[in-house]
Amino acid sequence: MSTKELYKYKQENDFEQFYKKIETLVPELKKFMTGSLKAAENQGMLDRGFHDADEMLDEVYLEAFKAFSSETVVTKLRRSLFKKAINKIEEKKAQEVPDEVNTHALLKEELKTLSEDFTTDGDGDRILYDELDDISYRQKQGWSLEIRLDEPLERQLVQKLGLHEAALLSDEKRRLLGQLYSTIPARSKTVVELLVFGHQDTLEISEILEVPENVINRIIFKVKERFRLL
């Protein structure tokens, strides 16, 4: 798509046509927004049905419309749209990251968390040491650990991360899938959601988050290793 056409609509102040054209430029953006919001709802991070992906995309596209110029490059526009979408979701989660904190540094720190040791529970299943301690404590308190993702989200995760379909065959496996997903640190989870829901490759993710591609690859590798427990 030529940016000249988009700039024409910007000059004519025709947001409706601009919206339609830019939506075809990044069809994965809506899938990413929808999947990320739904996953956040499943984990209790957002109220169910309270946030609408289309309304949030309207805000993203409006910001892009206001900032658009004749010098805008398509590749940079695609990256900026994903960045704006991520920021919108983070705002809704009320988990703002201070500007002075570097995303690269945050992801490197989260890699340590993703490398936590595993042990086995009474049934011989592998689980995180910290998770085992947490489960024992929560059970004493009588709290529920029921965390489940919607089935469409589960299937996307299983397919994109190369997991075995058996991960969805039982309630226990589905519960563990949701539990493992919830243990992924916040910024690393953005990497996963760009990969799974946004259908972005590692190079695209590195450009969107402005992080070296080798860090993105390591995050994805560590996450896949965690899900191999299933």
Written account of the structure:
The chain is mostly helical and 230 residues long. The chain folds into 2 domains: 3-93; 103-227, no CATH class. It is built from 12 helices and 2 strands. The protein has helices spanning 3-11, 15-25, 28-42, 53-67, 74-93, 103-114, 129-141, 151-160, 171-182, 186-196, 202-209, 213-227, and strands at 118-120, 126-128. A two-stranded antiparallel ribbon has the order 1-2. Strand 1 and strand 2 (126-128) form a beta hairpin. Helix 5 packs across helix 11 (202-209).
Features:
about 230 residues; mainly alpha; 2 domains; two-stranded antiparallel sheet; 12 helices; globular
Number of domains: 2
Alpha carbon gap, first and last residue: 42 Å
Shape type:
globular
How much of the sequence is in beta strands?
A: under 5%
Average of pLDDT? 81
Number of strands: 2
Low-confidence stretches: 95-100, 119-124, 129-144
Q: How is the largest sheet built, in terms of strand order?
A: 1-2
* N to C succession of SSEs: HHHHHHEEHHHHHH
| Helix-residue proportion | 55-70%
What is the CA-atom radius of gyration, in angstroms?
A: 19 Å
Q: Characterize the largest beta sheet: strand count, sense, and whether it forms a barrel.
A: 2 strands, antiparallel
What is the overall number of helices? 12
Structural class: mainly alpha
